[in-house]
Amino acid sequence: MADTKREIERKYESEDSGLPDLTGVAGVAAVLDKGVAHLDATYYDTADERLAASSVTLRRRTGGSDAGWHLKFPVAPGVRDEIQAPLSDTLPGELAGLVRSRVRHGELLPVVRLRSDRDVRHLVDADGRLLAEVSVDAVRADRLTAGGGEAQWTEIEVELADGGDPAFLDKVEKRLRKAGIRPSASASKLARALAETAPHQRRASAPAGEPVTASDHVLAYVRAQRDAIVELDPAVRRDAEDSVHCMRVATRRLRSTFKSYGEILDRTVTDSVGDELKWLAGELGLDRDREVLTERLTAALDEVPATLVRGPVAERLHTWVRTEHGGARVRLIGVLDSRRYLALLDTLDALIADPPLGKAAGKKPRKPIAEAVQKDFRKVAGLVERAVELEPGTDRDVAIHEARKKTKRARYAAEAARPALGKPAKDLVKSMKALQILLGEHQDSVMARQALRELSAVAHAAGESSFTYGLLHEREEQRAVRVETELPGFWERIEGGAAGL
C-alpha cells in the first residue's frame, strides 16, 4: 500500500560544496551528523518524457531510509506530494494508475540513473526535535537512453521536517546565502540530469506566443481545461478532497467552450468530442451528486430541534451515501483506466495540436468572441424570463434547471473571453456565477425533495416514522419559493449590468 507525504525542500549549489555553521540559525540548538548514505535511483518516463514535461518524477531507489518506489507531483515551488510504495522489481499497480493520464498507452522506460553520496545533518531545537534535514549530495547522473551522456555535480538540499513551519527554511536560506551558497537553477536532480545529459542535437521547444487570433484565445482556454483534467486524474484516484468536482467542472468547461465557440472551432468535429466529455462528466457525477445532497440534508437535519427528530434519520442519511460510495469509487477508477477515457485524452491532444478551425478562427478576437458570449447571454435571458412567467410547479422547476445549465455555459464562455474582452467579460463571469448559485439552490432543493421522498418511503416500509422527512421536505419547498421570489429582481439587476458587452 502506498503512503503519501508532503515534501517541502529547497536546493542550493556552491562552488566549494561546503556547509557553513548552521547553529547560528534562529531556533537551531544543534547540528547532528547522521553519516553518509549511498543512494541509487533509476528514474522512469516515456520516450518523449511526458512525466518530466509535467514536473512529475517516478523513481525506484535503493539505499537510505526510504528505499522503494517514489512518485512525486508538484504542488507549488519547492513543494511536492510524494507517494511511496515498497521496493519491488516492477512498478506497483497503484503508482502506474496515478501516471496513466500522462503516460496512457506509452511504455515507461528507465531514462536516468542517479547515484548520490548523501552527507546528512539534522537541525534540531533545544528539545531535540527535528527542524530540517540538510544534506550535501555528490551526484553522478547517467542517461540510460540512446545518445545520452553523463554529468556530475554537488548540491545542498534542505528538507523541512514533517509538520514544520516553512518560514524556518527562510532562516536557513539567509544563513546559506551569507556563506555564498545560491539557490539551484534546477527544480530537481532529475531536471538537471535531463538537461545536462541530453543529446547535443536536442533543443527545447519554443514557448507559445501571445494570443493573436480568435482561435488562439479559445484554444488557450481549451488547453487549460485539458491540462486540468490530466493533472486532476491522480487526485481523483486518491480520493482527494474536491478533486472529482474540479475534474467534472473542467470537462463541462471544455464541452461548453466547444458549443459556445462553434464559429471558431468547427462543431462538426468538436460535437463528438463534446459527447465524450458529457459521458465523462456523468461518470464523475454519480458519486458527487449524492455526496452533495447528503451534506445538504445533514446540515438541514442539524437545524431541526431534537424533539422533532423521529426515528434514525441521521443513520439513514449516512447509510444512503455509504452504500453508493464504495461501488461508485470502484466504477470511477474503472472509467479512468478505460480505453474510452484514454482515447478522449488522446483526442483532446490531437485537437489542440491540429485544431478544427471554423470560419471566424483567424479573425481578430474581440468581435467573434463577444458575439459568442452575447449569444449565450441571450439564451440565458430567454430561459430565465420563461421560468419567471410560469406558474410554480414541475414546469417551472424544469425551466429553472435549464436556465441554470445555460448560465454555466455563459459563465464558461465569459471565462474564456476574459483575455480578449477584459472587464466586461470579468463582470459577466461574476454575474453568471451569482445567478448559477441562486438557480443551483433551487435545483438542489428539487433534488433534495426527491431524495427525502425516497428516504421516507424506505423508513415507512421499515416501520419508522416519516414525520421528520416530511418536515425537511416542507423546509426545502420554502427554500425553493424564496429563490423563485428573488429571481425576477435578481435577473433585472444582472440584465442591467450586462450592457458592456
Structural class from helices and strands?
alpha+beta
Q: Major sheet: size, sense and barrel closure?
A: 8 strands, antiparallel, barrel
Shape: globular
**What's the β-strand tally?**
9
* Average pLDDT over all residues: 92
Q: What is the CA-based Rg, rounded?
A: 28 Å
Kindly state the percentage of residues in helix: 40-55%
**SS element count, helices:** 14
Oligomeric status of the shown chains? single chain
The helix/strand series, from N terminus to C terminus, equals EEHEEEHHEEEHEHHHHHHHHHH
Q: Uncertain regions: pLDDT < 50 for 5+ in a row?
A: none
The CA-CA distance between the termini, in Å, is: 54 Å
Tell me the strand percentage band: 15-25%
Order of the strands making up the biggest sheet:
1-5-4-3-2-6-7-8
Molecular structure report:
This protein has 501 residues and is α+β, with helices and mostly antiparallel strands. Helix content is 55%, strand content 18%. It contains 14 helices and 9 strands. Strands 1-5-4-3-2-6-7-8 form an 8-stranded antiparallel beta barrel. The radius of gyration is 28 Å and the shape is globular.
